[in-house]
């Protein structure tokens, strides 16, 4: 047999590589809704600004000793009665001045962050878990469960939020942070339940749910593996915005004297104290009220950014 025929019949190792190169790169895998929303959020200045501010507030609430070593409840009336701020003394006890009890306003603003963030996050977690679970069950099963939940939510929606919290908290002789969280969560779960119910009603008729049922999937698997991931987006948006509302509610109750006790450091309690000296010492009101406004605004901006990222119609 000729030598050139043997060479021609030999397979070459370069051929598969050429075939792969001609086929081109593999197509990118489609991103999930969460990954797509996160990529969209990272491009929004509103989300980055609010996220950094919230991270700073969480750091202050978790480690207030890093920002102030002064006891927020200790005061000296003879030296610091309504002393004005010394803005040149950054991070010093007299940076924001002193209140009518001779206490450092800066220290009270720092330590008051813990209470507000704890109440806001605690209430949000409770209402999201309780309201989300009840709304999911009512929306999926329907019938008597849906009717019963709808009537219960109608009753709770008829109760003014702050007035109802005042009535509940007035029944306790000693009010702590956990008492306030429980009272606000008791009245605030209905909004999350109604949002979750509507999202589940829409999702339960989807093709992937019908396919899961046809394959014999159980109820719990359908609810938590198929329906919940596709119905949680509007709940996250509402919960993020409502977190700021709960912080305002705690401050309002403390201002009215029905929130936290006098031994707890709270922005609402400091605003109540400052209302008697607003003319001759407005700095007592300015700093706790400003911190409260900035905190609530940060969570509202975060909620708006998340809503735009999770809603395709707003992109």
Annotate the secondary structure layout.
Blueprint (H helix, E strand, L loop, with lengths): L2 H7 L4 H10 L9 H9 L3 H18 L14 H4 L24 H37 L1 H15 L3 H10 L6 H27 L3 H8 L4 H13 L1 H23 L11 H8 L8 H28 L5
Protein name: ABC transporter permease
Subcellular location: Cell membrane
Family: Belongs to the binding-protein-dependent transport system permease family.
Protein described:
This protein is 69% helix and 0% strand. It has helices at residues 3-9, 14-23, 33-41, 45-62, 77-80, 105-141, 143-157, 161-170, 177-203, 207-214, 219-231, 233-255, 267-274, 283-310. It is elongated and about 80 Å long. The chain has a single domain (39-67, 99-314), classed as MetI-like fold (Orthogonal Bundle), CATH 1.10.3720. α4 packs across α14 and α9 (177-203) packs across α11 (219-231). Mean pLDDT is 82; it is low at 1-26. It is built from 14 helices and no strands. It has 315 residues and is mainly alpha-helical. The longest helix has 37 residues, at 105-141. It starts with a helix and ends in a 5-residue tail after the last helix. Its main location: membrane. This is ABC transporter permease. It is a multi-pass membrane protein. It is found in: Cell membrane. InterPro entries: BP-dependent_transpt_permease, MetI-like, MetI-like_sf, OppC_N.
């Amino acid at each position: 047999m000729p030598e050139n025929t043997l060479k021609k019949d030999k397979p070459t190792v370069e051929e598969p590589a050429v075939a792969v190169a001609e086929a081109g790169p593999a197509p990118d895998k489609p991103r999930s809704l969460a990954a797509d929303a996160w990529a969209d959020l990272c491009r929004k200045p509103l989300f980055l600004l609010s996220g950094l501010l919230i991270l700073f507030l969480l750091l202050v609430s978790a480690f207030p000793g890093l920002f102030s070593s002064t006891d927020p409840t200790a005061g000296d009336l003879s030296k610091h009665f309504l002393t004005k701020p010394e803005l040149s003394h950054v991070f010093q006890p007299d940076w924001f001045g002193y209140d009518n009890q001779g206490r450092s306003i800066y220290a009270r603003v720092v330590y008051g962050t813990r209470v507000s963030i704890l109440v806001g996050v605690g209430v949000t977690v409770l209402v999201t878990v309780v309201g989300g679970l009840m709304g999911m069950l009512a929306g999926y099963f329907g019938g008597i469960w849906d009717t019963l939940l709808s009537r219960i939510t109608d009753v709770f929606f008829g109760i003014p939020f702050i007035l109802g919290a005042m009535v509940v908290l007035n029944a306790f002789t000693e009010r702590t942070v956990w008492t306030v969280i429980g009272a606000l969560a008791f009245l605030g779960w209905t909004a999350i339940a109604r949002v979750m119910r509507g999202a589940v009603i829409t999702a339960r008729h989807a093709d992937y749910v019908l396919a899961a049922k046809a394959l014999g999937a159980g109820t719990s698997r359908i609810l938590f593996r198929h329906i919940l991931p596709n119905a949680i987006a509007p709940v996250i948006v509402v919960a993020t915005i409502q977190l700021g509302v709960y912080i305002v509610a705690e401050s309002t109750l403390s201002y009215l004297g029905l929130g936290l006790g006098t031994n707890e450091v709270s922005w609402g309690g400091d605003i109540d104290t400052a209302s008697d000296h607003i003319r001759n010492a407005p700095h007592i009101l300015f700093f706790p009220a400003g911190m409260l406004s900035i905190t609530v605004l940060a969570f509202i901006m975060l909620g708006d950014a998340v809503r735009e990222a999770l809603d395709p119609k707003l992109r």
